[in-house]
Amino acid sequence: KKKKKKRQGSGKGSETNNADKFLCELTGKCGVGGIPTAPRQKRGKGPKGYNKPFPVNPEVATLHEARKYNGVFVGSSVWVTNVDDMRKIHREGFFGKGIFSKSAPSKIAPEVQNNKKAPLESWVDNKNESDSMPEYLLLSLEEAFFLSYSVGSLHIVDIKNNVISTKELWSIFRRVQPNFVEVFAAYHHLRSRGWVPKSGLKFGSDLLAYRRGPAFYHSSYSIMVRLHCANSHQAPPTSRFQHWRQLLNVNRLAAQVAKEVLLCTVIVSENISDDTFNDPVKCLQQLEISFSILRRWIPEKTRD
Questions:
Q1: What does the DSSP 8-state code read for residue 295?
Q2: Is 261 within 8 Å of 251 (Cβ atoms)?
């Protein structure tokens, strides 16, 4: 009988080393909280054409010369209606998801494909079922602001086609989502370290962290974000960390789906002014981020 050859990197030791490496890249600290869980790879090699982290042409010298994609702010999210823009934004960085699909938009009306754009006003006013409606790319507020402010590749307008500036976007998003500042700070930090953060709403958290992207790996971490004022031991009134039961619920749910819980603390100065908070550039420069892993203590596994 022929002996099966073991693949390189398939042992438990290699998985542990990879997991340690991923955790170091995420938190900036090595050896935090013991042995982290290695990301679970999905079946197959993954789709082709998902190699670029951002929808930007690297041959372009400046961001002003880069291609601008168009998005429409509709009240709680940003929609991308152009077919080419939808495919480009999603395939290069896994930004957004289809309104009716789990990932990329899959149900695009023929007239939308031919015209390369969709009648947004009729879409918003239409109250029919989803079967008669085309599908667009939905960007979360963090994704839209990251593409507009950090990458500079998204041009956002309102339903009446009025251009929205960066400061206006910052003010509007803070009003629509009270915890937008701290969640976007965590989102920006994860993106800068090569992770693909997505919404963690279905798992009761703020964000999910994927290695490379949802098409290749399952999410490794379920992230809870909180805002903490320096020199203060009390949580803000809007914080979700009011009681340990909330963290225990999230931790138990994450354990059932093979994820680990990361507590992301966004530290802000106690004497920060309102003018600084209203300016995205000044505000983000004043923030500090730290991560902590939350694990259950099991006495049977920790006995000497």
A1: -
A2: yes
Is there a contact between 104 and 87 (Cβ–Cβ < 8 Å)? yes
Predicted confidence at residue 46, as pLDDT, reads 59
Q: Looking at the whole model, is its pTM more than 0.85?
A: no
Annotation says 259 is catalytic: yes
Taking only Cα atoms into account, the Rg of the chain, rounded to an integer number of angstroms, comes to: 21
Alpha carbons 96 and 93: distance in angstroms, whole number: 9
In the set 69, 136, 210, 217, the catalytic residue is: 210
* 210 catalytically annotated: yes
Q: How far lies 15's CA from each of 8, 92, 289, in Å?
A: 11, 27, 27
User: How far apart (Å, rounded) are the C-alpha atoms in residues 130 and 123?
Assistant: 11
Q: Which of 90, 97, 188, 259 is catalytic?
A: 259
The confidence band for 16, taking pLDDT boundaries of 50, 70 and 90, is very low
